[in-house]
Amino acid sequence: MEWWWALAFIFGGLVLFMASGLPVAFAFLLINIVGIFFFWGGEAGLGQLILSIYAAVTNFALLPVPMFFLMGEIMFQSGVATSVINALDKLLGRLPGRLSLLAVGAGTLLSVLTGVPMASVAIMGTVMLPEMERRGYHKSMSIGPILGSGGLAMLIPPSALAVLLAALAGISVSKLLIGGIVPGLLLAVLFAIYILVRCRLQPSMAPTYDVRPIPFREKMKTFVRYILPLGLVVFLVIGVMLLGICTPTEAAATGTVGCFILAGFNKKLNWNVIRKSFMNTARLTVMVFMIVAGSTAFSQMLAFSQASKGLVELVARSSLPPTLLIIGMQFVLFILGCFMDAFSIMMITIPIYFPIITGLGLNPLWFGILMLLNIEVAPITPPFGLELFVMKGVAPSTTTMSDIYRAAIPFVLIDVLVLLAMVFFPQISLWLPGLM
After folding, report:
1. What pLDDT, in 10s, does the model give residues 416-430?
2. Run of H or E residues at 358
3. How far from chain centre, in Å, is Cα 227?
4. pTM of the predicted model, to two decimals?
5. Do you find a cis peptide bond into 383, omega within 30 degrees of 0?
6. Which residues, in sequence order, are CB contacts of 96 under 8 Å at separation 6+?
7. Runs of H (alpha helix) within 202-306
């Protein structure tokens, strides 16, 4: 069978299974079984499929994933994340768009604490939206910053998605994690600049209000009690990797221990919190490892059917400049993000994209960070981004999906601008990993 027929068969079957309502992970597993039976020698191929799946889910590089999830769950279930938001509220003075800026700052910190975008959006939406509504904030200035900063959890360590991408694509886990720091912080700064400028030009978007003066002594006490311990947890995750002291797995372990200590220090750790955290971590981990199993088998099926090789040769023979090709690939990711979740996008595209990238001699680490940033946009991209529906669930009842869509668009555009800057200036993402 020619490779293009094999590719059409594989993706046609995948679309058919998904359209029938089958969950994405099961759709991949089913098409893998059917495809490998045809392309990989019948029953012998199915036996090899089982061995490949076992090897994929026992990959040591994936060990940080459940620990990063556990970090986020401990912070979420114990209420430490909410305490951090309240602490930042005390430290922030009277500024245009004060609560919107607080959302960006808190979202950036929560991305380090939780590593799970939907958890960040749920926490900030529950805590901050009612106060923003009470203060007369326009929905674009209340919902938008929460959605935009919530997605930073995919870029800034600890990012379970980055670990998963690195493991599936065969690139350095630690360098991919560290590579997301500069783009993530750059996005946070641009979000803050956008809020300040728009609130200066349109003060009605975020009406100013009197803030109770906080004595310097109380601010320092708040900083030492809530922010400084958080900084130590950040160092236990990011600093030890950047200094070369720990591997990603060891950093995940030290960060998890740090989160337990932080929750205990704030007297918010109990058996109910621990039980819920471990149960939710187990659910998320099972979901991710099913994705790993399906994506690994999918990659091997594409290789055995010669579809991957055919695609690489087709691209190599084309006269497209590499930069234009990269932009085209990112555009496809962006369109997929309008309709699919981040994990499903990775399952479909990694087996196709990375053989092309390596075949063209491009830096896979750079492309991996580009892909992370693009996938970070997916959950807030209308009409089907998952974080949009999470926001709908926690927003006041007067909020419509149209309000949420309009609020998300400016932050999606900022994400796209940073993505284009990274395409033309790779050192934005490669500088920090280059120091390791």
Report:
1. 999 999 988 989 888
2. helix 342-359
3. 23
4. 0.79
5. yes
6. 195, 196, 199, 200, 203, 206, 208
7. 216-222, 228-234, 240-242, 248-265, 271-304
Residue with tokens 């100013």: 208
Residue 20: phi and psi, rounded to 5, are -75, -5
pLDDT tens-digit map of 47-80: 777 777 787 778 777 788 888 888 878 887 887 7
| Contact criterion met (CB below 8 Å) for 98 and 210 | no
Residue-wise pLDDT tens digits, 22-45? 777 778 778 878 777 777 666 666
Q: CA angle at residue 433 from 427 to 436, to 5 degrees?
A: 135
DSSP 3-state of 360: coil
What is the length of the chain? 436
**Are 36 and 297 a contacting pair, CB within 8 Å?**
yes
**C-beta neighbour count of 397 within 10 angstroms:** 5
Q: Which amino acid type is present at position 45?
A: G
Long-range pairs for 100-103: beta carbons < 8 A, 24 or more residues apart: 100/132, 100/137, 100/141, 100/142, 100/144, 100/145, 100/195, 100/199, 100/206, 101/145, 101/192, 101/195, 101/196, 102/128, 103/128, 103/142, 103/145, 103/146, 103/149
Decide if pLDDT at 193 tops 90. yes
Cα separation of 197 and 17, whole Å?
47
Identify the residue whose tokens are 């400049």: 321
